[in-house]
Amino acid sequence: MTVQIRPAALDDLSLICRLRQQRALWLAARGSDQWSTEASGLSLDYFAHVVDRAVTAGETWIAEMNGEPAGTITINDQADNELWTEAELADALIVHYLIVDLRYAGEGIGRRLLAHAAALARTRGRHWVRLDAWTGNADLHAYYRRAGFRLVRVAVPDRPSPSCALFERHVNGWLRDEGLVGSRPETFPISAQAHYPIGLPVLG
Known about the structure:
The protein has helices at 13-29, 44-56, 86-90, 109-123, 138-146, 172-177; strands at 2-7, 60-65, 68-76, 92-100, 128-133, 150-154, 165-170, 198-201. It is α+β, with helices and mostly antiparallel strands. It has a domain at 2-129: Gcn5-related N-acetyltransferase (GNAT) (Aminopeptidase), CATH 3.40.630.30. α1 (13-29) packs across α2.
């Protein structure tokens, strides 16, 4: 079984918003305030506005399994103020809005999307994939640790934004995972110029 990763189109915006709503309800049912407006999370309207801009800029991707949308990710070199230093941003791509459809939970979709971020980072000469996670979501932190990320720090914990747990992973970590040690960046299997969709094996 393979995961296909393709650039998102504007027609995918409603899908991405649906995935966000689905996951927010799932989190709320488990006692998490992640993405809730009461906890300073983005409203759905503002989320749609931000993702619309990212899709137009070619920064958002859709994962499909057996032709069905299964997840999404936005990847760029931007982050909220006061999270990462200028030097950290200059040598990384930043992951935003990694969301997997609950129907495909446990199928490795999230890890494949993170591997896609690493491949894009390598093609652009960056050495790190970085992200901020909801500060109080310990389960999410554990997920990223299992995916090979390390917690760098909790940035300005007294700031209004509740997503200040900063994680990073060096792009070479994915080469080890895929048995591609020694591969040069230009030969890594995903690139921004590749033809789409891209087929990737599911690994856990």
